[in-house]
Write a structure and sequence with these properties.
Strand content: under 5%
CATH architecture: Up-down Bundle
CATH superfamily: Heme oxygenase-like
Oligomer: single chain
Structural class: mainly alpha
Order of helices and strands: HHHHHHHHHH
Radius of gyration: 16 Å
Shape: globular
Number of strands: 0
CATH class: Mainly Alpha
Helix content: over 70%
Number of helices: 10
Largest sheet: none
CATH topology: Heme Oxygenase, Chain A
């Protein structure tokens, strides 16, 4: 029987591809202004989303996941400050995934953690195409050279959880990941990068 990680990857693969097509960041973000707009859009969504995840911090800790070390909303604020941005967007509160319990929160964090891998590629793109320095790339560079280690540790914790959780809890974790992708898609369709 496939592991929880394998199931999530298989079921969310099409959503991941759809999100990459909708965002198409290398093509749509070609100026500092567009980059600032992209960061502001992420910040408006990540604020309420990460607040919801924080309510499950004890459960993440019990699984060996240091949630505070993984959340990146503060990096968005650092980057926007470095760019001296004054962008106002509506709150992404209504778009942030609702989390009925820890399984959904874990599935949701899977999506945020996975995005750190793509962030490494985008960091190089923004350095080369926009001439941005590290002071404005905290969000996309996230864990830097430790990104691979963070991802592997998260996947290992997810597998431990999947092995001990019930079939229903595993299904809820899968649905949480799907809901997270759907939330990002809905938000960026409502607030496209221009």
């Amino acid at each position: 029987m496939p592991s929880l990680l394998a199931k999530i990857r298989a079921h969310t693969g099409p959503l991941h591809e759809e999100l990459e097509a909708v965002l198409n960041i290398p093509e749509q973000v070609r100026s500092r202004e567009q980059y600032t707009g992209l960061l502001a859009r992420f910040a408006a969504l990540y604020g309420p989303w990460e607040a919801r995840l924080r309510s499950y911090e004890p459960e993440f800790k019990a699984l060996g996941i240091d949630l505070s070390a993984r959340l990146r909303g503060h990096n968005l604020q650092r980057d926007l400050a470095a760019l001296e941005a004054n962008v106002r967007l509506p709150s992404g509160e209504r778009f942030a995934p609702s989390l009925a319990g820890f399984p959904e929160a874990l599935g949701s964090l899977y999506v945020l953690e996975g995005s750190t891998l793509g962030g490494q590629v985008l960091t190089r793109h923004f350095r080369e195409a926009l001439g941005l320095g590290p002071e404005a790339l905290h969000f996309f560079s996230s864990h830097g050279t430790e990104t691979g280690r963070y991802w592997k540790e998260f996947c290992a914790a997810l597998e431990v959880y999947g092995a001990r959780a019930s079939a229903e809890e595993n299904e809820r974790t899968l649905r949480g990941a799907e809901a997270a992708f759907a939330a990002i898609l809905a938000w960026f369709r409502d607030q496209p990068v221009r």
